[in-house]
Design brief:
The complex is a heterodimer of chains A (427) and B (300). Chain A is globular and about 65 Å long. Chain A is α/β, with parallel strands linked by helices and 427 residues long. The relative contact order of chain A is 0.12. Chain B has a domain of 207 residues. Chain B is an all-alpha fold and 300 residues long. The chains are: A alpha/beta (427), B mainly alpha (300).
């Protein structure tokens, strides 16, 4: 009996703590706020840093009085939910439950950042359309979402993307490959990619395009999410005489690939996208072994680009607000810009009616930390090579001492790509 | 299905080398889980949580408290062993003998530890441990880094040490006594609760040892808490729960099979190898390669 009483008291204590704990939402401090939902994988760095950026933008906007909706000023309020769609083994329906829950329970007016995995985004588009909640995503990258929007614009018009998709990513990668061919004569490529929808598609499209451009694709290999040993692929790349390894990975464990690349002394240039190898912390994490690696940063702002001052301002503001630098190459700046894009659209619409807000979102034309943001007919942000005309990603190269140098596109490059001393050009 | 046929003898040797490393890693991961089960009969489903506890703990000692690596490692091994022992002393002792309750309790505790790290924000790539020594050796036609070479040597040395420990020390003999027949061991004055607590502690300590030598090759991620538990379970199921030789045998079978599959078919087939091995062994020999439980049950 005594034991039962103890358990009862313990349960009451736990419930009390839960009820008394402060809300995780960022309060507006006034009545009738505009609620922004952030349902994503908060247990993963892109989700977490994107949420930080959303909160930063909301604080900035609220500090100026909020958003003007018709004649009234309304403040933003953020509600977040960890839908865990990035975690290996979490089924898409579970992530969708989280998405639907934040819409119904928190009565969000709009969603930013959104699902992490394209699989969850594509399945979640029906839920978002059903409840008519405008969403400006910044993580999931499959262009299949745009195809759905173009196929049924009336139904799916609520979904926008402010970050890169796999197509724009491939556009930049093709540019880098042509650059490497022109400068060093490289044309033999081995693709290693994470076995997820967007990464698989990206590798397939790039190898197909390079094949048409008379490149020799000496191998390609999919790795399950969370892999920690890449020796088979590295041995095969060496044996096949590859000159470039094109990696496409976004999970934290993938940085191990670069460590192995150096320790196995594979005489190949690593040029592609390994998400955990982008932030300033990577240099220490990977035992200062990543010099020479060439890595994509999906949106400028996630790294400061001196030739685009707005990207430096955002990067420094993030550091000041959160006491640390941005480590992710995809999503944080997108979360920040999405809030401003939404705020500007609401002000243009003058109402919170979702269809009117969507119509205003379609007319977006904003110059911010990631260049100029405009949406195409698939509601995808248009990316290019001129920050005054389009949004931009960039490519960095790690240099000895842990410096990140912007090397592509040439319009914003700080330096040219330099081959590591142990790697010789093919011409 | 892409089958790779390149540069055969050299590739084959290289695959053998990395297969050996993979096998020793699997053996190290499973050793602690198997030891606890073999002695006390407790399937410690908090094992993966202890693994990341050791990893994150070592990282904190190194980076936040600036304790040198050679002190941080033994300190964290001891702390993890202590946590394992305390789990038994304060929680499992009350559930002793109720197998399902033990599984639920250890799984629940493991879940709480793993998700606590996620909640506290331990989700960044910065969480990684340094390699003990930088550099590579050329062996079998491939470069092998010192850390992987060390893991192989360490795994062999640890197996030998455990063999000597369980046969030539007082506690080791008590471990074996409880493992062979708990009631008879009791009549010889061996305290089964004390030995079970020690077995949980030893299991935790071995788990921490595995973590600190393996994690410099990886990053410390919260998800590893689940992955390591699955790896340990897979090896123990195939080898036979409680059988040390079976676990080593299974590690080599699975490790080599995974690496050769990754090399000649593709890495995304690696998980299939493990699943097929588990299904096959359960269908043909449910106790595992060298396990004895099913036979004992049938005899009873």
């Amino acid at each position: 009996m005594k034991q039962v009483s103890s358990i009862f008291v313990l349960m009451i204590c736990i419930l009390s703590v839960g009820l008394l704990a402060p809300s995780s939402s960022l309060g507006a401090g006034g009545s009738d706020p505009i609620i922004i939902g952030v349902p994503t994988s908060l247990g993963y760095p892109p989700g977490k840093e994107a949420l930080n950026s959303v909160m930063m933008a909301v604080e900035e906007i609220n500090a100026k009085g909020g958003v003007k909706v018709g004649d009234t000023m309304r403040k933003f309020e953020v509600e977040s939910a960890d839908i865990r769609d990035a975690a290996p083994g979490v089924p898409v329906p579970e992530a969708l439950l989280g998405l639907e829950k934040i819409i119904l329970d928190k009565k969000v007016h709009a969603i930013v950042v959104g699902p992490y995995r394209s699989e969850a985004l594509l399945a979640g588009m029906d839920i978002i359309s059903k409840y008519k909640v405008p969403m400006i995503g910044s993580i999931a990258m499959s262009p299949a979402s745009e195809a759905k929007i173009k196929g049924d614009p009336v139904k799916y018009k609520y979904i926008f993307r402010v970050g890169q998709n796999a197509k724009t990513f491939i556009g930049y990668q093709m540019g880098v490959m042509k650059y490497l061919e022109k400068e060093f004569g490289f044309n033999r490529l081995y693709a290693m990619y994470q076995d997820t929808m967007w990464a698989r598609k990206s590798a397939e499209i790039l190898t197909m395009l390079l094949g048409k451009a008379n490149w020799k694709i000496v191998g390609n290999e999919a790795y399950p999410a969370g892999s920690t040993d890449y020796s088979p692929g590295l041995m095969k790349a060496r044996a096949a005489g590859a000159q470039i390894i094109f990696p496409v990975f976004d999970l934290p464990q993938a940085g191990v690939l670069v460590k192995q690349w150096r320790s196995m002394k594979v005489p190949v240039l690593m040029a592609g996208m390994i998400a955990p190898m982008s932030g300033p912390q990577s240099w220490q994490t990977y035992d200062r072994k990543i010099a020479g690696a060439v890595n994509m940063v999906m949106e400028i702002g996630n790294v400061p680009v001196p030739k685009v001052p707005a990207s430096v301002r955002y990067y420094e503001a993030y550091r000041k607000r959160w006491g640390k630098e941005i480590q992710e190459q995809h999503a944080p700046v997108g979360g920040y810009e999405a809030v401003y894009v939404l705020a500007e659209a609401i002000e243009r619409a003058g109402t919170m009616d979702p269809d009117t807000v969507v119509a205003a979102l379609e007319k977006t034309d904003r110059k911010g930390a990631m260049g100029r943001i405009r949406f195409d007919e698939g509601h995808q942000t248009i990316f290019g090579n001129d920050p005054s005309e389009k949004a931009m990603g960039c490519v960095i190269q790690w240099r000895e001492g842990g410096r990140r140098v912007v090397v592509y596109p040439e319009s914003i490059a700080e330096d040219k790509i330099i081959l590591p001393s142990w790697l010789k050009p093919a011409k | 299905m892409p089958i790779f046929r390149g540069n055969s003898p050299k590739m084959f040797l290289g695959t053998l080398v990395y297969g050996l490393v993979n096998s020793v890693i699997l053996a190290l991961v499973a050793m602690g889980f198997n030891m606890t089960f073999g002695i006390s009969g407790i399937a410690n489903f908090a094992y993966g949580a202890l693994y990341i506890l050791a990893g994150f703990g070592t990282w904190i000692l190194l980076n936040s408290l600036a304790i040198p690596l050679f002190l941080a490692i033994p300190a964290m091994v001891l702390i993890t062993a202590l946590v394992g022992g305390l789990l038994y002393r304060f929680i499992l002792i009350r559930l002793r003998g109720m197998v399902i309750s033990e599984v639920i309790a250890t799984f629940g505790i493991g879940l709480a530890i793993v998700e606590m790290f996620r909640f506290l924000g331990f989700i960044h790539v910065k969480y990684s441990l340094p390699v003990f020594s930088d550099g590579s050796i050329f062996i079998g036609g491939v470069y092998l880094d010192f850390q992987r070479a060390f893991i192989v040597v360490f795994g062999i040395a640890l197996s030998g040490t455990l063999w000597v420990f369980t046969r030539h020390t007082r506690i080791g003999l008590a471990f074996r006594g409880i493992a062979q027949d708990e009631r008879t061991a009791l009549t010889f004055g061996i305290d089964s609760d004390r030995i079970s607590a020690l077995s949980m502690g030893f299991g935790g300590g071995l788990c921490a040892l595995a973590a600190v030598v393996i994690l410099p090759l990886r990053t410390i991620s919260v998800d590893a808490g689940y992955e390591v538990l699955l790896e340990a379970l897979a090896v123990c199921i195939v080898g036979g729960l409680g059988s040390s030789v079976g676990v080593i045998l299974a590690s080599f079978i699975l490790g080599m099979a995974q690496t050769f599959t990754a090399m000649y078919w593709g890495p995304h087939w690696m998980m299939i190898v493990t699943l097929v091995a588990i299904l096959a062994i359960l269908a043909i020999r449910p106790s595992g390669l060298l396990g004895k439980q099913k036979e004992l049950e049938e005899r009873i």
